[in-house]
Amino acid sequence: MVDNRAFYATTPIYYVNAKPHLGHAYTTIIGDALCRWHRLLGDDVHFLTGTDEHGLKIQQAADAAGLAPQAFADSIAPLFAEAWTRLDISNDDFIRTTETRHRVGVQKLLQACYDNGDIELDTYRGLYCVAYEAYFTDDDLVDGNCPIHKRPVEHVEEENYFFRLSRYGDRLLQWYADHPGAIVPDHRMNEVIGFIKQGLLDFSISRTSFSWGIPLPWDDRHITYVWFDALANYVTAVGYGTDDDMFARRWPVDFHMIGKDIIRFHCVYWPAMLMSAGIEPPKGWAVGGWLLVGGEKMSKTTGNVVNPLDLIDDIGVDGFRYYVLAETPYGADGDFTYEGLIGRYNSDLANNLGNLLSRVATVVGKKCDGVGPRPRPDSPLASAAIEALEETTARWGDVQPSRALEATWQLIRATNAYLENNEPWKAEPGPLVDAVMGDALEALRIVAILASPAVPTTAQAVWERIGLDGLVADQRLPHAAAWGGYPGGVAVTKGEPLFPRRQV
Q: Is the residue at 406 inside a domain?
């Protein structure tokens, strides 16, 4: 039995102080598509998402709702799981930080750092943003407010345990020097290096002013500060503290999919914590920009939240997934508009992919008795298919879904142009029509495979309508996308339009 390469990817875990919104969906869909691609490569994939359920922000939200914190978390966490099901997210695990496996792993991690001498008792005096669960200096503030949420911060003074991050600057710089591609895109790596070189400050890892969280194992008067608690989910979910064999198989993670606003915690705090505990840092981080609405980051605080489930009710799951993946290069900020959503749906899905399948099935039905012919080994489309496979593979490797899809869609456009040049609908049935339609069906077969991480339901529909058995998700690259795999002699079905055109 072949021991397939383990591939482990994660999303951030999402606060349960509010329902899922478009920003949450954005990162989760990207992580899902990347993992689906790696399954096509034959990798042993483990995809993790979940919810962050501890801390002062959650306790306050629970109080406002008139619920105990656990009851409040239990009412919100399933909404995320249900949303990911509706968005066809293929996560292998969903962790909640209120689970026993997480508590056990967090306390083991804390104890390891404490035993190494990197956690010490001190007094914190400074500024704190409850909404962001983060401490700030005066220089960090914008007009006296939190730079992220633009809300007033609180002056806090209390006894805390601190993680001695200041001891890890040189080790972090050396680690990143030894792993130059660990953070993508490249400019985010530069940002992290610059932050470390400014000098690192120790950070608080406990609080005594609230009770909702995991007690420190050596001092139960103190509750684990949310960032130390939350970051640990990436190791506790794969067995740290509970399943040594699983942890050895899955860790280190291949990619943490994160937003740019949490890069400091994930790319500086987190690897230092792991180093202190004697655990290898992650292999990589893929840092995305924000999907903005009206130029602002989506949040409950700013009141510009877009519900992704409302959009899929209107545009369909795959239509929405495609927009999220194709519209904005990963790493850059995008600005969501409904007009942009409909425009990309109509141009790429209705006019290109949907129209290609429709015209191929129509011609095969009329000119080939509904039976798909075999492709030609020397088809003019073969080189376009090879190029599409190579470029799509390279761009998924760079964690650039928009560019991967553009490479796949080039094959769709080439096939549509090929049909326009040959006009098989005008020709009499015979070898020429058979040759052209066999080539087009083979191109559609390859497109279905390459597009399946983005639009899995649509890809399966294409697969079945061109007469193929089984699941497109079970195909394995690169061999499955080699030219010449369409068998011919199978029934081709037109069916209803894949993507009916929409009006704004």
A: yes
Condensed to tens digits (0 to 9), the pLDDT of residues 393-427 reads 999 999 999 999 999 999 999 999 999 999 999 99
What whole-number distance in Å separates Cα of residue 421 and Cα of residue 379? Answer: 14
Assess if residue 41 is contained within a domain.
Answer: no
The answer to whether residue 393 sits within a structural domain is yes
CATH of the domain at 361: 1.10.730.10
The Cα–Cα gap between 280 and 134 comes to 25
3-state helix, strand, coil in the chain (%, to 5): 50, 15, 35
Answer yes or no: are the C-beta atoms of 227 and 258 closer than 8 Å.
no
Dihedral sign for Cα 273, 279, 281, 282, please.
negative
- Average pLDDT of the segment spanning 157-180: 96
What domain count does the chain have? Answer: 1
The average pLDDT across 217-234 equals 94
Place of tokens 């198989």: 249
Joined tokens for residue 237: 């979910």
Instruction: Give the torsion sign (CA, 310, 314, 317, 318).
Output: negative
Q: What's the whole-number mean pLDDT along residues 175-180? A: 98
Structural element, H or E, at residue 38: helix 22-40
What is the domain range of residue 465? 339-491
CA distance 7 to 286: 14
Specify the length of the chain in residues.
504
- The helix or strand, by DSSP H or E, that contains position 326, with its residue range, turns out to be helix 317-326
Tokens of 394: 């390279």
CA–CA distance, 56 with 133 (Å, rounded to integer)? 8
Q: Is residue 479 part of a domain?
A: yes
d(CA 357, CA 134): 51
